[in-house]
Amino acid sequence: MPEFVLTVARFGFLVLLWIFVFTVVGVIRRDLFSGARSKSIVASPRGVGGAVLQGRPAKAKRGKAARQLVVTAGQLAGTRITLGEAPITIGRAEDSTLVITDDFASARHARLVPRDGQWFVEDLGSTNGTYLDRGKVSGPTPVPLGVPIRIGRTSLELRP
Amino acid sequence: MSRIPTGWKTRRNAELGLLAFAMSIVAVFGATVEANQFDEIRMTSWIPAALVGILFLGLHVVVRFTAPFADPVLLPAVALINGIGVGFLRRLDLAKAIANKQPEPGIFAGTGGRQLAWTLASLILAAILLLVIRDHKIVSRYAYTLGLVGIVLVMIPAVLPSSISEVNGAKLWIRFGSFSIQPGEFAKLALVSFFAYYLVRKREVLSLASRRFLGIDLPRGRDLGPVVTVWLLSLLVLVFEKDLGTALLYFGLFVVTLYVATERASWLIIGLVLFFGGVYLAYLLGASVGGPFANFYDRAEVWLDPFARANYERVSGSSYQLVQGLLGLGSGGLFGAGPGAGSPGKVPEVRTDFIFAGLGEEIGLFGLTALLVCYLLIVERGLRAALAVRDSFGKLVAGGLAFTLGLQVFVILGGITGLIPLTGQTTPFLSAGGSSLMANWLLVAMLLRISDAARQPATGTGPDRAGPKKAPVQLHGAMTEVIKP
């Protein structure tokens, strides 16, 4: 076997090893910047861009019934829960309907309950409170469509 | 793959491509070995690489169907290391056969062939784990059983008579004739699961109900009792079994899991102080009292100055092995002698503990660093899965497993290169040895399972993917689906 071939094999192997390492890093890199997670890390502020938050949330349309609960901000942004007859529990506990991993959320944080076609939000004695738009929720409060419910860093709203 | 929503990238094809690339590197390694050993590259040189490749392809198919969202990098990186391990062991067999003028060993003969067979067995085990455990949270149901199994596995060799369990002074084995297993390797997996489960149950209590002592928050004894008991027991047994490396592994695992669960840096400080204090005490005791600590004292002396004549000519625990390893690494230099061109046979235990020294002579610092980066990437992907997965049990298991793997590589590599005192540990996926290979492949299978859970699209609290279900998935009476791609 000529010396030249041996040298090529010896260095070729090392070069291949490093090409492999960089290919792996490339795959990881592509994974980081695309795919699973939402494109923007921070949710867009209200009224700025994003079809998600268009329309003035404060002017709630009373006429339509809520069909969906949409998470608009926080780790679960983009999750949509189709509303039925059953109440929805929100919190860190794993048996909640919507499990939020948020440092500011309690295990059983809040509950959404339907009553005669209207959804009510109710705080379940959470540490950091539940907010409907700007106001703190103390008792069962009716939730108009499109008004954000804030729990820790997570925002939810009802959609028709 | 109908149950994967369109628009979601599973990255399985990237995994397949990387796997093919890794296998071609293993084939190039084999061919270079033959070129150096036989002066010709024969047509049969690709057979071991192809066999290994088929095995990994099989596991890839299992991953494709049972864990479609698993991390695409884990499997190829591990496959590369495992493949090079098999190739290097076969290279040692070839060199031995040539030296003894024997015929070339068959594909499944010799250490390399055995390693190939063990790889097959390990991959089957890993596939079974992926098939049986569809959701890593199931493991938490058997946490106490696993904890008990872990202790029993660690204790078996200590209880058995030395004739069955002792190899090279360390009582770590169960031998049946020529066949031997090292139960401690498997115990590590069971103990991680137990620690994770217990700490998840107690994490709030551990980090909230604490007593302040010397500016450090210490949890109440009754909350910590079972974990400390398990840890002390395994540690006592390990000191009794004279295997310091594994004891260090369990200790590190214990401290890190505790740190991850409570998010308190004080645990790391306590752990490090305890560890260094204990080691120094053992060293002093070894110098003055001897007895069970003499072994450790010898190793520390050898570590401090391996080239000293007194250490080299020591009757028990001579620095001969360490020196041979260091000389091997040194003669490898930056780029190594080339696969198959070195003389790793000069290093004792080059098939197991010192495989990195043997490899280092042939692929040099440049090649060793690439392998180390592969280990680093495996550990990083494990920690990544731990960060991304949503349930605390999964976080602790993935974090604990990834850390164990990293610590094990550090302990053995640090020992070989003279950074820390040498303790006998297997190099994960590389060293000859079935138990280590199987246990580490099970570890990787568990990481694959958790990374699958971590990377799958968020559809509420994790749908049950065990069977085909109609989308949207029904969860606690509410319909859930995801709008964003």
What this model shows, in words?
The complex is a heterodimer of chains A (160) and B (485). By secondary structure, chain A is an alpha+beta fold. Chain A contains one helix and eleven strands; from the N terminus they run αβββββββββββ. With 485 residues, chain B is mainly alpha-helical. In chain B, the strands form four sheets. A two-stranded antiparallel ribbon of chain B has the order 1-2. A two-stranded antiparallel sheet of chain B has the order 3-4. Chain B starts with 11 loop residues before the first helix and ends with a strand. The chains are: A alpha+beta (160), B mainly alpha (485). Chains A and B meet through α1, β2 and β4 of A and α1, α3, α14 and β8 of B. β2 (79-82) of chain A pairs antiparallel with β8 (478-482) of chain B, so a sheet runs across the interface.
Q: Major sheet of chain A: order of its strands?
A: 2-1-11-10-7-8
The total beta strand count of chain A reads 11
Radius of gyration of chain B: 23 Å
Shape of chain A: rod-shaped
Q: Summarize the amount of helix of chain A as a percent range.
A: 10-25%
Oligomer: heterodimer
From the 3D coordinates, which CATH architecture of the domain at 68-159 in chain A would you assign?
Sandwich
In CATH, the topology of the domain at 68-159 in chain A is named Tumour Suppressor Smad4
Helix content of chain B: 55-70%
Low-confidence stretches of chain B: 460-485
Transmembrane segments (chain A): 6-28
Keywords (chain A): Membrane, Phosphoprotein, Transmembrane, Transmembrane helix
Protein name (chain A): FHA domain-containing protein
InterPro entries (chain A): Cell_Proc_Reg/RNA_Proc (IPR050923), FHA_dom (IPR000253), SMAD_FHA_dom_sf (IPR008984)
Question: Can you tag this structure with a few keywords?
Answer:
heterodimer, A: 160 residues, alpha+beta, Tumour Suppressor Smad4, six-stranded antiparallel sheet, five-stranded mixed sheet, 19% helix, B: 485 residues, mainly alpha, two-stranded antiparallel sheet, 16 helices, globular, disordered C terminus, Cell_Proc_Reg/RNA_Proc (chain A), phosphoprotein (chain A), transmembrane helix (chain A)
